[in-house]
């Protein structure tokens, strides 16, 4: 297993930077899914069986039987990557929890020092109290930096919006604002009395036809009408 992990790590380092970043983000997502195996029943093996042929495939076209033979190797490689990422994910979460517990203990000690300084007289306060407080504050700052470093190692969960997405969202917001204004402008008032008005004849507003248009001849119209009557009488039931 260790040799396989080292070989896969070397092959991943040879990938281009964008491909390596996408693969790392995908393995991190699958590791988070596998971490909830008790709920979703999707362990590392099941996830690798589904995503293995999608992530790893041949560059040249192969026969269907050869592709089926590659599924086992593809699943094994992707399962190894998911398991390794899951170990890193659990270790990072464990370290973050430990840092949070240590920060709570240091914060509790700082609160005790502040309570002791408020309740005791200034003349009876030991000079070591100030030194201890300074040490605890430095420890709290160090723990906070370590926790921030571990959080930065985890990929961000929220998608980063591009400039096109931001521009489209602005356009949607402007369209929504204009639509709301138009709705308010043309809202109906049912309490107001009705207003009656006369509409102009619609044919007067019809655009004129093309110039020098010849009207159909009267004889042609009569022949067309006669032909249509003959067709109707031909198809009419007897």
Topology:
Blueprint: H1 2-13, H2 17-35, H3 37-40, H4 44-55, H5 64-119, H6 128-153, H7 163-185, H8 218-235
Helix pairs in contact: 2-5, 4-5, 5-6
The portion of residues assigned to helices is over 70%
- CATH structural architecture of the domain at 2-153: Orthogonal Bundle
Number of strands: 0
Largest sheet: number of strands, sense, barrel closure: none
**What overall form do the CA principal axes indicate?**
flat
Structural class: mainly alpha
- Radius of gyration of CA atoms, rounded to a whole number: 39 Å
Q: What is the overall pLDDT average?
A: 76
Share of residues in strands: under 5%
- What count of helical segments does DSSP give? 8
Distance from first to last alpha carbon: 90 Å
For the record, the CATH class of the domain at 2-153 is: Mainly Alpha
Order of helices and strands, N to C? HHHHHHHH
What's the CATH topology label of the domain at 2-153?
Phosphatidylinositol 3-kinase, Chain A
Subunit organisation of the chains: single chain
Low-confidence stretches: 180-186, 231-238
GO molecular function: actin filament binding; GTPase activator activity; microfilament motor activity
Pfam family, one: RhoGAP
InterPro entries: Myo9, Rho_GTPase_activation_prot, RhoGAP_dom
Subcellular location: Cytoplasm
Description:
With 238 residues, the protein is mainly alpha-helical. It has a domain at 2-153: Phosphatidylinositol 3-kinase, Chain A, CATH 1.10.555. Helix content is 71%, strand content 0%. The protein is built from eight helices and no strands. It has helices at 2-13, 17-35, 37-40, 44-55, 64-119, 128-153, 163-185, 218-235. Helix 2 (17-35) crosses helix 5 (64-119) and helix 5 runs antiparallel to helix 6. The N and C termini lie far apart (90 Å). The relative contact order is 0.05. Mean pLDDT is 76; it is low at 180-186 and 231-238.
